[in-house]
Amino acid sequence: MRDDTSLTADYFDGRHAQAIAAELRVEGGHLHLTGQGLDRQVPLRDVRWPERTRHGARIAQLPDGSALHARIPLEWDQWTRHHGIGEGWVVQVQQSWRLVGIAVVVLVALCIGAYLWGLPLASRTIIAATPRSVDHEIGQLAMRSVEDQWLHPSRLPKAEQERLRQMFLQAQARLQLAREPGAPVLPVQIHFRRARIGPNAFALPDGSIVFTDDLVKLLKGHDEVLLGVFAHELGHVQHRHSMRLLVQSGLLGAAASVAFGDFSQLLAATPALLGHMAYSRDFEREADDASIELLQVNGVRPSVMVTLFEELDAYRRKPARDEPDAREEPDANKAPQGEDHESGSQDDGEADEDDALGIAFSSHPADAERIARFRDADRR
């Protein structure tokens, strides 16, 4: 019968490759090692004991760089258990598939909870402490980025641009007067651009709200619908949705970088990142509610927004969007020499789906809930 009070292992002194057969005993809180030319004691607390694994080797590291190698792992495990050595609760959990499975389930649940509730809460808290000047700086950077990638100077008549701009700003002023008389109006800059994203609109953190020429043409004769789109984008600015998206993406990136690697390029990509993110369903609800409020204050039925969704749906279904050759326009309609007429510009009728802006209005297809929300608002 084997004596559990002692164990034979291979001792390496850290200077020679030759192993020495050593007998190990535990007495008085010390590990005693004896063998040919070997007699030493080491405090148990100074020994780095290996974790027990199913198939791995057992190697204990001693303070002076020497080491003990188990000859038979099973006997080593029995000997260390007998003396209560190196067997913490983590090791015990690792040896149980049931406990490991429970730990995985708990970890997944925590990750889902952090993503669904912790991340939005953290972003709101951070944004509340972030001055609006940061929104302005990031918005300006983002505007330059999208100008380079997606936008071109508008071909709408200047008078039409100014008429729509004044209509939007006057409606915003009436809303602010109804909300809080005397309070300053949130500054916004309204831009009209040709674009490769089709009929669309989007807002940036600094208050820049961009309408594409295609959207204005699509809704010609429906000023109240354009007003609803403006109000929707204004809602994104008021609630700082773009900034909250950036914070959430940054937190996710930081968490992933802690787990997997460097995040030094994250901040450098911030302006371009805005163009590829999509608003959450909750953000869209908040922006839709802002649109409903502004329309009602200005005496417009919110249900007019259904027209927008219908027009966008009809636009997407046009056969020309699936037949590139059908999108070519006669030369007479193309831009004059010296004016940008890059393939994919608005007047060429091309809207490259691969270049779609995630934060743009029509990148969020209208579902039954959103349409019903605008219709139900008429009865409030």
From TrEMBL:
The keyword Nucleotide-binding does not apply. InterPro entries: DUF7092, Mito/Outer_Membr_Metalloprot, Peptidase_M48. Coiled coil: none annotated. The keyword Chloroplast does not apply. One of its GO terms (cellular component) is membrane. The chain crosses the membrane at residues 99-118. Residues 176-375 form the Peptidase M48 domain. Residues 317-344, 366-380 have a biased composition (Basic and acidic residues). Pfam families: DUF7092, Peptidase_M48. Keywords: Hydrolase, Membrane, Metal-binding, Metalloprotease, Protease, Transmembrane, Transmembrane helix, Zinc. Binds 1 zinc ion per subunit. One of its GO terms (biological process) is proteolysis involved in protein catabolic process. Residues 317-380 are annotated as: Disordered. One of its GO terms (molecular function) is metalloendopeptidase activity. It comes from the Bacteria. Residues 345-356 have a biased composition (Acidic residues). Its cofactor is Zn(2+). Residues 7-82 form the DUF7092 domain. Belongs to the peptidase M48 family. PANTHER family: METALLOENDOPEPTIDASE OMA1, METALLOENDOPEPTIDASE OMA1, MITOCHONDRIAL. This is M48 family metallopeptidase. It comes from Aquabacterium soli.
